[in-house]
From TrEMBL:
Belongs to the ketopantoate reductase family. This is 2-dehydropantoate 2-reductase. Catalyzes the NADPH-dependent reduction of ketopantoate into pantoic acid. Keywords: NADP, Oxidoreductase. It comes from Mortierella polycephala. Residues 8-161 form the Ketopantoate reductase N-terminal domain.
Amino acid sequence: MTLSTPRILTVGTGAVGSYYTWRLQQSGLCTVTTVCRSTYEVVKANGIEIQTIAWGEGPHVFKPDHVVKTVPSETYDYIVVCLKVLPDVYSIPDIIAPAVEASPGACIVLIQNGIGIEDPIKERFPNNPIISAVSYIGATQVSAGVVYHSGMVQRLIIGLFEPIEGVDTTRYLQIFGDLCKKGGIEVTVSDSIQNNRWQKLVWNGSMNPICILSDLWTVSDVLADKDYKKMVETTMNEIAALAEALGYPMPPTLVENSMKTSLQLAAGYKASMVVDLEEGRPMETEVILFNPVRLAEERKLTHIIPTWYKLYQDLVKYFAERRK
């Protein structure tokens, strides 16, 4: 590991990948390479404009040290994956393989949503440390080479997926955390990162299907309807109860705080799967819904999630009808 200036490769340089990689570069302690497919020419020529008030008025232009079209067979210390988890569309292990195979000691950082995202990576690359990261940030790619960051929140919760015998995995975690802090990212190191994943799922797992199935689409419209608001709260409580049953204790005020935060979102705010549905893009149904529901089925715990389980089944039917 090049402790003096770690080499970082970001795979998935959309809004979230662009923003966090920019801040890592701003630490002044690492070099960054970004994989840009459709935006390669724009980013190579002009960099990425980051529209944000979190660092003054700007303009803020992120110019990666290196821009590439595909994952290179080069040595890196950290391979940061910010791709959406879409196993029906592509294989993330296949995509990152050239860099991982050229970097036998590289740490793979997964800044992604959902449950069970680490398993395919661990299976393919058992000797590489994995940092699992939960992101809280309002960032969207408004056009090629332009990212909009709303508000001031740019939070990462990071933790090791599993220890690896003979590898100082905590050193990787410490160095990555230090790079984040130096770059101004609000970072928390967690010793129970799966717990944090389930905490985020409480919002994602309830709000996404209800926004879609209600045909109201926006969070504000869903919460303005008394019945749907009650359904959101019930579903959040069920997901939290499932997490508890699976061994992940949830904070007692989690649902209350999630509801408060939801009510404070800007009018017209849409959950991620709603945006993807509108844009005709694949949605992260596998890791936000299917994986956790499968766990409930395998452990005979579906009785804990009656409302959520029905929403899941209705959503499967809804997607089947749309495909027809």
